[in-house]
Design brief:
The protein has 394 residues and is an alpha+beta fold. Helix content is 27%, strand content 15%. Strand 3 and strand 4 (139-140) form a beta hairpin. The protein is globular, with a radius of gyration of 55 Å.
Length: 394
């Protein structure tokens, strides 16, 4: 028996047997420690050994076999060293019929191309990245990104329309249309002293809901109306001096008593000769210098004879308030005291007497609320009459 190649080659590793039907150039699965000798092409397997059916490509035979068709003239032959494609022809099964042979290049286990990077012979497959992600990193269609932007744009449009509509509505409510209506209103307010009945400026009965201490309701009844006069002897000297910067056109006054007939209050409307700029300047001065808090700048009451306020003089003044309007040439004021003609040593401005925690006799009696509450209601009546006088006829 002749010795085998492995037995005759001393010191050389045995040559691994090539797998039938393997593609030429396929690297060995078990690398050797030394380079292997050149490998001869394996013989073409028979049609019935199943190699073609398993998808393996067999090497071409060394020479043409009988019955093989030669290429026609002009057909380009591959150059020496060019690797033939690994697509086998139609394979037959053991009975001579054609058998399906899968393409190795379409298989995930296709061999790597000789000399190329790993996976060069495999098909390139790419996975599409989702178009977007939500807050929890979940994929979502890109179209969902547009909807919030559209919603924000719509909200901006609605907000803009709301602001424009609000500005128009506000201008309509205050009578400011930007075409001189404000100036007309200011001028109309200055002429109310001779065009509006006294009962509209000083109503016979004034109701003050929530005007008393702790939000209690108040009701005042008019007991006297002074004739329209100038401003002489109507204010303390320093207050008259401060008001002289806006002039004095007419002064209207009325005295009221509360429902319990415990307090008397004189309320007045000073119609000035100043314009809007001068009224704003005077208002700023009162605010900056606290002129409405000084006891030497107080208005004087109207003590009508034969009324419960007959003894209401300078010594009986308990609380007062002065308000300079900037949208009308008018100064509204009020001064209150006890109806029993008692004197007051330390009068308090209404703003101070209305503060929570004030325990003085003036504050506890609510005389600050009397002065402030009645002045506010008369001011509202004035504004209502100004609005009626500026309405356009229909």
């Amino acid at each position: 028996m002749a010795p085998s190649l492995a037995q005759s080659s001393v010191g050389m590793p045995a040559k691994p047997a090539s797998r039938p039907g393997s593609a030429p150039g396929e690297p060995s699965r078990h690398p050797a420690s030394a380079p292997l000798p050149p490998q001869r092409p394996a013989s073409r397997p028979s049609a019935g050994d199943g190699s073609a059916a398993r998808g393996y490509a067999a090497p071409a035979p060394a020479g043409p076999s009988p019955g093989t068709q030669h290429p026609s003239p002009g057909t380009q032959h591959p150059s020496p060293g060019t690797q033939h494609p690994t697509h086998p022809g139609p394979a037959t099964n053991g009975h001579g019929s054609a058998a399906f042979s899968p393409d190795p290049s379409l298989s995930w286990s296709a061999p790597m191309a000789p000399g190329g990077p790993p996976g060069a012979g495999r098909p390139v497959v790419s996975f599409g990245q989702p178009e977007g992600y939500d807050e929890q990193a979940r994929p979502r269609p890109l179209g969902l990104r547009i909807r919030p932007r559209v919603a924000v744009a719509a909200a901006c449009v609605v907000l803009g329309l709301g602001l424009i509509g609000g500005a128009v509505t506000g201008s309509w409510l205050i009578g400011d249309t930007g075409d001189g209506t404000t100036q007309d209103t200011f001028a109309a307010a200055g002429s109310l002293w001779h065009s509006v009945p006294v009962d509209q400026l000083f109503p016979p009965t004034v109701t003050g809901r929530g005007a008393g201490p702790g939000g209690a309701d108040r009701t005042w009844t008019r007991i006297a109306v002074a004739p329209d006069t100038g401003c002489a002897n109507a204010f303390d000297p320093l207050l008259r001096k401060a008001l002289s910067t806006v002039g004095c056109d007419r002064l209207l006054r009325a005295t009221y008593i509360d429902a319990t007939q415990s307090y008397v209050t004189t309320v007045g409307l000073l119609f000035t000769t100043a314009d809007a700029t001068a009224m704003r300047s005077l208002d700023a001065r009162f605010t900056k210098e606290d002129l409405d808090r000084r006891t030497d700048l107080m208005p004087r009451p109207y003590a009508a004879k034969g009324t419960p306020a007959a003894g209401f003089g300078d010594e009986q003044r308990a609380s007062w308030t002065v308000s300079v309007l900037t949208d009308a040439p008018v100064v509204v004021y009020a001064v209150s005291g006890w109806a029993d003609d008692r004197t007051v040593d330390e009068p308090e401005p209404a703003r101070q007497a209305m503060e929570s925690g004030d325990t003085t006799a003036v504050a506890q009696a609510g005389l600050g609320h009397e002065a402030r509450g009645l002045a506010d209601r008369v001011e509202r009546s004035l504004r209502k009459n100004v609005g009626s006088s500026t309405e356009q006829p229909s």
